[in-house]
Each structure stands twice: as structure tokens, then as C-alpha cells.
Amino acid sequence: MPKDKWTTANIPPQTGRLAVVTGATSGIGHEAALALARAGAQVVLAARNEEKAQRAMASIRRAHPSARLEFHPLDTARLASVREFGTRWQNEGQQLDILLLNAGIAAVPKREETEDGFERQFATNYLGHFALTGLLLPSIRSGRLGSASRIVQVASLAHRRGQIHFDDLQLQGAYTAQGAYRQSKLAMLMFGLELDRRLRAAGSPILSIPVHPGVARTDITRLGDRAGPVQGLAARAILTLLGQPAAQGALPLLFAATAPQAKGGIYYGPDGFWEARGYPAPADVAPHAPDQVAAQRLWSVSQDLTGVTYPF
Questions:
Q1: I need a labelling partner for 194 at 20 to 30 A (CA). Which of 62, 128, 248, 268 fits?
Q2: For the whole prediction, is pTM greater than 0.85?
């Protein structure tokens, strides 16, 4: 491997830093939590399933017995759960340095609604994270230990074919599994870019850095089987040809969360063919994703839907 390729060996010491990782029980979220704990960070695994979280923490502790880990319940598909997490955090008075927004679902074959009336992929992948960030933003340290705090949004290659359906955000009229996923991941990328613009305008040193993992072999990609045998076969073929292990897919997340050279408002992903695999590097942003007018509209709608207003 060329010396200029960034890996977990390049993570600076994270002792004294606190990270919250959503969806940390498996896949790239688990690999990110593992690497952050190994570097000395205190890591909060924010997840729906406590049993899975306990297994994930046990796995990390087997590799690193001194790892400092906590589980906090969080279901990003439920605004009540997001608010409970935010309220508990504020009441405890903890500050954090890294907020890694990774939890997500994909390939939901038929349209499903959450208890809040939102399309499930849009709620889980994007709206819950928008609300969580707004609630936790006052608790994010402006800067510590020579490194600005980071908010990292996990987007996807799928954003390239995504569209924000402002006239039907919940896709009640025309739902497809891939269309819903693409919309949610485009929204995450637009959110990351717009949040960084707003942080800069407010004079905040906190960095907002969107990323994507390429094509990583994780549970979320195996969900292609839910969409039917043909789609499942196609997904497995793509993973075989282009996919990379979850640990490799987590590198852009970790680069954004820890690397001194990572910059706010820059989108990072793998540097290989089609950005499917490789090592962290600036990634391609589809022409429609940096649309600031659309991003501002999405921001306004998201505040209305979640009831969370940012403290700018």
C-alpha cells in the first residue's frame, strides 16, 4: 500500500474525546466505533436494539479490554426516541466531540410509514439525524485538544441518481425502494453541506463533513434480498465485483471524524474505481447536490416536520 493512503493507523490519539455513533451495532458503524475506541475515545453506541449493542460492545472489549463504551437507546425512525436521547443528553450535561450519523436502512420493498407519518427510509436515514443533530448541537464542543469537533453525515453513491420530491417527500404517490433510498441519501449529503455553510456563517469552528463508504459489504447491502430474488442476485453480483469489507468502508467516516487534514463542507469517499472501494479522498458530488436554494428549502421543511429548530 502506498504510504500516502490514509488508514486507521493514521488516526491521531483520541483520548479525552467523546464520540456518538448511530447505528454502531454492525457494519461500518461498528467498525468506526471499534477504531475510535482503539484510538482512546469514549464511544457511545446509539442504537435501537440493546441486545445487539451489548454484543457489539463485548466484541470491541475483546479486542480492546480498556475500551470506554456506553449504550444509549436511539431509534432515528421515531422522533420521540430522538427527543428522549437529546433530553437525556442535555440533562446529563455531557459534551461531545464527534457525532457520527451512520444509522440507516435500505431496500424496503413496499412503502412503510413511521409512527410520525413519515416514509420509513427518509425518516430513519435523514430526518431523525437532522433532528438529533439540532438537539445535540449545543452540547458539541467548539474545539478541544487541537482539533475541531466534527459532525459526519453518511451519504451514499446512490445520491447521484437521487431527487428531493418536495411535492411528495413521503412518496405517497410513487414509491420505489431505490427511489426512497436515493432521496434519503441525497438529503443527507445536502444536509451536511448546508450545515457546514451555516456553521461557517455563525463563526463556529465545528466541522460538518459528509462522507460515503463506497460499496461496502454490510447488512444494509444484503437487504437487497428483501426487494426480490432478481434484485438480490444483482446486489450480490455488484458486491462481489466492486465491494470492500466493512472496515475499509468505514475509513472515510473515520478520516472525516479524526484526520486533521479533513475539511468541513468537503465530501469524502473511497478513491478507487467509481469510488466503490479504496482509501479516503475527496469524492464526486452530483451537480444537483450543492444546490443551495434546494438545500435551504429542505432545511426549512425538515425543521417544520421534526419541530427541531437549530440554535443559529
A1: 248
A2: yes
Provide the annotated active-site residues.
181
The answer to the question of residue 311 being in a domain is no
Cell of 149: 469537533
**Sign of the CA dihedral running 101, 103, 105, 111:** negative
CA separation for the pair 155, 160 (Å, rounded): 10
Residues 47 and 26: their CA atoms lie apart, in Å, by 10
In a domain, 1, yes or no: no
Task: Say if residues 243 and 217 touch (Cβ distance below 8 Å).
Answer: yes
The count of structural domains within the chain is: 1
Domain that holds residue 249: 8-305
pLDDT score at 232: 54
CA 296 – CA 293 distance, rounded (Å): 5
pLDDT digits (tens, 9 = 90+) for 251-290: 999 999 999 999 999 999 999 999 999 999 999 999 999 9
CATH of the domain at 59: 3.40.50.720
